[in-house]
Amino acid sequence: MKYRNIIFDFGNVIGKFDGHYILRQFCSSEQDLELLFDAIFSGWDELDKGTVDYNENIENVVRRVPARLEDTVRTFFRGWPEHIIPIRETAEFIRELKERKVPIYLLSNAPTYFAEWAARIDTLRLFDGIVFSAPLKMAKPGPEIYQYLFRTYDLKPEECFFIDDLERNIKAANAVGMDGIIFTGDIAAVKRRIGF
């Protein structure tokens, strides 16, 4: 294998994060769905960066929706992680890496609520180190969070390979000396790149 350590993103790499699908689990009206989608997800980057408190954000969103949707907003913000669909092929690949004793790490943008909730995810218990953005108040593609990962787990960027679904995050990884691939769901392509 060409790399010593494999770094994973979470959303759309380990678990499918589809805002519309998740929101449909809480709201059946198409008209309300679009209104809620805009209200909930327009500030999601700030949640990922940890620049807004999770509970404060809930109340901010509640104020932006009609009264009939206030409970839906609160229920969504407490239940959305349960509707992330695990990506089976990635889970199998993670197990294969662990069987070969390859160190694996997580570098993911996520709100504080998910960072706490993620302790329930069996697959993540296999990881040698986990970095979520919001608790650190920094996020990809900012170089600081990559440097934090390297520093915290004593990793050399050139020995790491990063799997993320967003091009901007892979470009940022490249800029700090780490190779990577834009993940499209093709584990075979990942294996070819790392010489697995």
What would you say this structure looks like, in words?
The chain is an alpha/beta fold. It has two domains: 5-16 and 85-194, 3-Layer(aba) Sandwich (Rossmann fold), CATH 3.40.50; 19-83. It has ten helices and seven strands. Strands 5-4-1-6-7 form a five-stranded parallel β-sheet, sandwiched between helices. Strands 2-3 form a two-stranded antiparallel ribbon. Helix 4 (54-63) packs antiparallel against helix 5. The chain is elongated and about 55 Å long. The chain starts with a strand and ends with a helix.
For the structure shown, list the relevant keywords.
alpha/beta; Rossmann fold; five-stranded parallel β-sheet; two-stranded antiparallel ribbon; 10 helices; 7 strands; elongated
Topology:
Layout: E1 5-8, E2 15-16, H1 19-24, H2 30-41, H3 44-49, H4 54-63, H5 70-79, E3 85-86, H6 88-99, E4 104-108, H7 112-117, E5 129-132, H8 143-152, E6 160-164, H9 167-175, E7 179-182, H10 187-194
Parallel strand pairs: 1-4, 1-6, 4-5, 6-7
Antiparallel strand pairs: 2-3
Strand order of the largest sheet: 5-4-1-6-7
By DSSP, the count of extended strands is: 7
CATH topology of the largest domain: Rossmann fold
Order of helices and strands: EEHHHHHEHEHEHEHEH
Any low-confidence stretches, pLDDT <50, length ≥5?
Answer: none
Report the oligomer. single chain
What is the count of structural domains? 2
- Quick one: biggest sheet? 5 strands, parallel
The end-to-end span amounts to 5 Å
CATH architect. name of the largest domain = 3-Layer(aba) Sandwich
Radius of gyration (Å):
18 Å
Strand percent estimate: 5-15%
* Form type: elongated
Return the CATH class of the largest domain: Alpha Beta
CATH superfamily of the largest domain: HAD superfamily/HAD-like
Number of helices: 10
Mean pLDDT: 97
* Secondary structure: helix percent: 40-55%
Category from helices, strands and their pairing:
alpha/beta
